[in-house]
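Re: [help] complex structure
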Amino acid sequence: MLLRWFLCSTYLVSFSQAGPQQFPISLETEVQNPNTFKDNARDKGPEIFNAVHSAMRQWGSSLKHNGMSFLPVKVPAKTQLYHGSRVKEPVTGMEWLAFEIEHAEMFARSRGRPPPGKGDRPGRPRGPGGPKDPDRGQPDGGPGLNPPPMEGDNKGYLHIYQTNRDLSKLLYIDGTSAGKTSMGTLDTTDIVLRNVTDSTAPWGDYQRAEDLCSLGLEWDVEGFIRMEAGFELILCNFTDGLDFVSAYQRPPYDQPEGYAGLYQFEYVRGVAQRYHGITAGRVQVDYSSMASAYFYPLNLTNPDETKSDLPRLVSAESEGIQRLKTHVHHSLSQSRAHGHQTIDWQGVVDMIVTRYSDRLKLLASSTSSQLEMLYEINFLLSIFIDYNSTDIPSAKESCTTHYLKSRKVI
Ligand SMILES: *[C@@H]1O[C@H](CO)[C@@H](O)[C@H](O)[C@H]1NC(C)=O
Ligand SMILES: *[C@@H]1O[C@H](CO)[C@@H](O)[C@H](O)[C@H]1NC(C)=O
Ligand SMILES: *[C@@H]1O[C@H](CO)[C@@H](O)[C@H](O)[C@H]1NC(C)=O
Ligand SMILES: *[C@@H]1O[C@H](CO)[C@@H](O)[C@H](O)[C@H]1NC(C)=O
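Output below.
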């Protein structure tokens, strides 16, 4: 009984109990059936919990790669961002920026001159071709998609930019939302934000970014943060909010040994350093203004039965999708109206995860004895119990709400 209670308690922690100032709750008045809305959010408690835990973290966002949520975010002034290019001149207009040097270096590399009739040439549309393009060598889109170089220009440049003000009108699309796959990584972008239903054509990231920035004009959003191997920012107008710091030429393509041999491994290493966070507060997330497919009674069934644990939006009802889209728009304006003030829900979630996760793992393992299990359970639950007069209902209530009370506004 104790164990059941214990497990229940940890799962009962749900953001739907957060309190009236939390945005999803205040939206109640705008949805047709507030109880359905609330019940749904409560049913999806574990998913919402995980989404908050994984926000801006490479590890959880890769495991649960089909993100279902949107969060307004801010990149503070003085943040350095990187861009790989085949031209030295600063970017104007829309482009990709990487948060990690290693990520941008992938796009900054000089290349051998392509054989005649192959590869980049003037007039070629921006954006490498699909997976069949033999010259790609890099993902389609990403922090370094460039205008076609001049004939014979095989040089690469690493650009550094720095924000000269807070970029406060950004939308973060969670999961592996920059992953050009047909597995569902693009569902929230394509189905919700772009109203494109053909999820079998994941490429064409330039068009995708243009569509996002058109929506950005409508909604007053200046950029979108996504994740592939590495976090990136699609910034809709490089001449607004960024200072160009430098563009250093990369070593030439035919450099002797010692320059380029390991760059792909270095890329993966750089990205893996961000498994548990982007570091240095470079992206400030407004958790209180999260909008999520998990808040709605949508059909999230994955048509691929072997991946049934990962949600998809391909079977979701279009009316519900439309409501979610409206919610995202509303969240962005609410977040700004509140000056991006938020409760540090990820901090709260981290406190819960760090207290319980190793102990749950021990309890679930076959090696622990009954006595060891009792020690752990009794220790974990002790905080909720007055041993003078054990009162299970109030102990349960206390367990459910304990961490929700320590809400730090950031
Ligand atoms: C989405 O596209 C479909 C047709 O492809 C159209 O019927 C529908 O009105 C569009 N929805 C929105 C919100 O633009
Ligand atoms: C980009 O920002 C600059 C500086 O604010 C502005 O002059 C320009 O019109 C903007 N470009 C677009 C396409 O909005
Ligand atoms: C959800 O979608 C799946 C796949 O399209 C379908 O088989 C299932 O019947 C749907 N569930 C509901 C409740 O409509
Ligand atoms: C212990 O519980 C009893 C019954 O609820 C109560 O009367 C008593 O005051 C409690 N004792 C202490 C020391 O709190």
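Residues 318-337 form the longest helix (20 residues).
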